[in-house]
Amino acid sequence: MSGLVFYYNNRLPCAAFRILDAAIKLNGEHRVISEFNEFAIDAYVLADSPTSRIVAIDFDNTITADVDFYLDLIDAYRCHNWEPIVCTLRDNDDENLVEIHDKLQDAGIRVYTTDGKKKRAFMLHEGISVGMWIDDYFPGITQFGTPILLRNGIEY
Ligand SMILES: [Mg+2]
Fold first, then answer.
1. What's the CA-to-centroid distance between 58 and ligand 1, angstroms?
2. Which pLDDT value is given to residue 107?
3. How far is ligand 1, taken at its centre, from the CA of residue 21, in Å?
4. 6 CA to middle of ligand 1, Å?
5. What is the per-residue pLDDT for 18?
6. Per-residue model confidence (pLDDT) at position 113
7. pTM higher than 0.90, yes or no?
8. How many angstroms is it from 100 CA to the middle of ligand 1?
9. How many Å from the N-terminal Cα to the C-terminal Cα in the chain?
10. Residues of the chain with pLDDT under 50
């Protein structure tokens, strides 16, 4: 398997990113770039609420791109008192939930299914601010031109 490319371009400090960055360096195959290049990027890392301890990780083509890496990352976040959660555009079907929990070998992780709705608005409606998102498809998080995208260097 060739390494995954993570996009991160945020000028403010983000403690959640430091844990991801350490996991990427430990992994040795994956890397971080700060240039926006849709053709090169496997996962977008977007800083959001500076006070939230929640890291929202997408499932399809994010966790599934390297399950072992994300299992270690989930452990690392928990060790540092962050709460990793799964947030997916899938619907709330039992099969989806079983598949996700099976793959993560973990019934404890909270899984949010937005059924195609933009993830950020969906989570805020649930009363949950997210500290950082990891997702292969940033348009699933929020609309184009919103402050969170601009703040993370995505300007179109
Ligand atoms: Mg995805």
1. 6
2. 64
3. 20
4. 13
5. 97
6. 97
7. yes
8. 13
9. 31
10. none
Beta bridge partners of 34: none
CA of 65 to the centre of ligand 1 (A): 9
> Domain spans of the chain?
5-151
Output the pLDDT for position 20: 98
Q: Which residues pair with 33 in a beta bridge?
A: 7
Place of tokens 């601009």: 150
- 82 alpha carbon – ligand 1 mean position (Å): 22
What's the pLDDT at 95? Answer: 92
Compute the distance from residue 92 Cα to the ligand 1 centre, in Å: 16
State both tokens at 91. 């619907």
What the block records as the tokens of 7 is 């996009």
Task: State in Å: Cα 12 to ligand 1 middle.
Answer: 25
pLDDT at 32: 97
Lookup: tokens for 111: 């899984």
Q: How far apart are CA 18 and CA 4, in angstroms?
A: 17
Cα 8 to Cα 46: distance, rounded to the nearest angstrom = 7
Query: How far, in Å, from the CA of 7 to the mean position of ligand 1?
Result: 14
